[in-house]
Amino acid sequence: MEERLIYFDNAATVWPKPEGVYKFMDNFFRTHGVNPGRSGYDLAVEAGSLLDKTRKRLTKFFGGDEDAHERLVFGYNVSDALNLAIPGLVGQGDHVITTNLEHNSVIRPVNHRVRDFGAEATYLPFNAEGFIEPDAVRKAIRKNTRVVIVNHGSNVIGTIQPIQEIGAICREHGLTFIVDSAQTAGIVPINMKEMNIDVLAFTGHKALMGSMGIGGLSVRKHVGIRQVRSGGTGVRSVDPYHLTDYPWRLEYGTPNMMGVASLWAGQDWLDAQGIANVYRHEMMLAQKLVDGLRAIDGVKLYCCDHLDNHLSTILMNLEGSDPGNVGVMLDVDYSIATRTGLHCAPLVHRQLGTEEGDGGVRFSVGAFNTEADIAAAIAAVAGIAQWSRQRRFRDAHTNASAPTASR
Ligand SMILES: Cc1ncc(COP(=O)(O)O)c(C=O)c1O
Fold first, then answer.
1. Closest ligand 1 atom, residue 205 Cα
2. Taking the alpha carbons of 162, 167, 170, 172 in that order, is the dihedral positive or negative?
3. Which residue, by CA, sits nearest to atom 5 of ligand 1?
4. I need a labelling partner for 106 at 20 to 30 A (CA). Which of 90, 185, 203, 323 fits?
5. Whole-angstrom Cα distance, residue 51 to residue 341?
6. Cβ(251) to ligand 1 under 6 A?
7. Whose CA is nearest to atom 14 of ligand 1?
8. What confidence category does residue 400 fall into, taking pLDDT thresholds of 50, 70 and 90?
9. Does the pLDDT of residue 271 top 90, yes or no?
10. Ligand 1 contacts CB of residue 183 (under 6 A)
């Protein structure tokens, strides 16, 4: 019988998805798999209505402007969304404040604006516990600062940033605040109005419980993102230029309706569970994991002395062992899936001092993990730690007793 994979790679993508998501997608594709918003027949209108309903539902879920749900635009994922927002808001000579916690989907578009378009950027370090100090944002503001971009929840060390406080500083100084919610949307409450978030970038395939290939931006009313792409919109075809009204302003071609359907069904599941309950479950497991790992000789944990304002993402290393090798042993010997390396967030590892050592081993606990999964993970790391200690002892012993060359 095939051994069951114990999945701890939920920060990469949440898997599996709720059964209702699979069923809804399958049914929608079979019964409504036509192009929405392009044609006037009933089925196309019905498909288009799911698109509209999902915009409204997500806008409400994110605490956006209720009367402007058309400003919820769909794209492929959060990287795609950030590649609309960053070039669309950061111009020549503009200064951007961002952080060492960012994923490459922020770092690279920002660096391209700096290298290729004469923008300036400041990367703020996180404190010893893994948090950005709001005051550091305030101190970094310059005359030409236009945009602040912060990763709401770290995909490496799991810390949740004080978005509301940073948002208040942005509001005070008239700066546009962009938040990358890849790790938090669907598991941590987000209220764009209360948190002063101007542009929220989200991805569908993580805690929102949707499929891969869907994500987008929720943009508040006062924010006009410059268009960097153009194409078909299905309406006003005679116009020789891309439409400037939302949502078409930032949408191009046929939308990913299967992805939209998955987000709709994901919302049904989240409503039924309550995101606070899902979060509580994941954090209960994360705490057990941290307690178990901490008791193992040679384990080093990063930024999880306490799990307040934390996601269920835990980074560790094993003394004397390459993280990549630990990941392979977890997979091959114990059927446990983790993610090792730099996690597309090199600045986090640079600041932690783990960049040179090939990063770390990341356990990301998800809604469908169990206490038995945690017990198996702790036992596996304990087994690898013991093996690694014995091997080092053997190597040291062998080297020490190796015959020396005769003079
Ligand atoms: C914080 C963060 N930002 C951006 C991304 C990129 O997400 P996607 O691949 O859905 O674009 C990830 C993915 O892990 C992430 O964790």
1. 10
2. negative
3. 182
4. 323
5. 38
6. no
7. 12
8. low
9. yes
10. yes
Q: 67 pLDDT band (50/70/90 cuts)?
A: confident
Gap from CA of 345 to ligand 1 centroid (Å): 10
What's the CA-to-centroid distance between 205 and ligand 1, angstroms?
10
Q: Tens digit of pLDDT for each residue in 210-223? A: 999 999 999 999 99
Q: Tokens 């799991």 label which residue? A: 158
Cα 66 to Cα 55, 183, 216, 276, distances in angstroms: 10, 24, 17, 23
Residue 179 and residue 197: Cα distance in Å, rounded? 7
Supply the residue whose CA is at minimum distance from atom 15 of ligand 1. 182
Decide if 282 contacts 187 (C-beta within 8 A): yes
Of 156, 222, 147, 209, the residue nearest 179 (C-alpha): 147
Query: What is the β-pairing status of strands 299-302 and 313-318?
Result: antiparallel
> Which residue has 């409503």 as its token pair?
271
Residue nearest to atom 12 of ligand 1 (CA): 182
Distance CA 82, CA 217 (A): 8
Round to whole Å and give the CA distance between 167 and 148: 9
Instruction: Calculate how far, in angstroms, residue 375's C-alpha sits from the geometric centre of ligand 1.
Output: 28
Answer for the pair 16, 348: CB distance below 8 angstroms, yes or no: no
Report whether 204 contacts 210 (CB < 8 A). Answer: yes
Q: Is the CB of 79 under 6 A from ligand 1?
A: yes
Strand blocks (E) in 297-346:
299-302, 313-318, 336-337, 339-341
Is ligand 1 within 6 A of the CB of residue 77? yes
Query: Would you state the structure tokens that stand for residue 357, as one six-digit string?
Result: 């050592």
CA distance 264 to 25: 9
184 lines ligand 1 (CB under 6 A): no
Q: Is the Cβ atom of 211 under 6 angstroms away from ligand 1?
A: no
pLDDT at 372 over 70: yes
Quick one: which of 338, 103, 100, 54 has its CA closest to 204?
Answer: 54
3-state secondary structure of 215: strand
Give the closest residue (by CA) to ligand 1 atom 7: 78
Q: Cβ distance 146 to 176 under 8 Å? A: yes
CA 154 – ligand 1 centroid, Å: 10
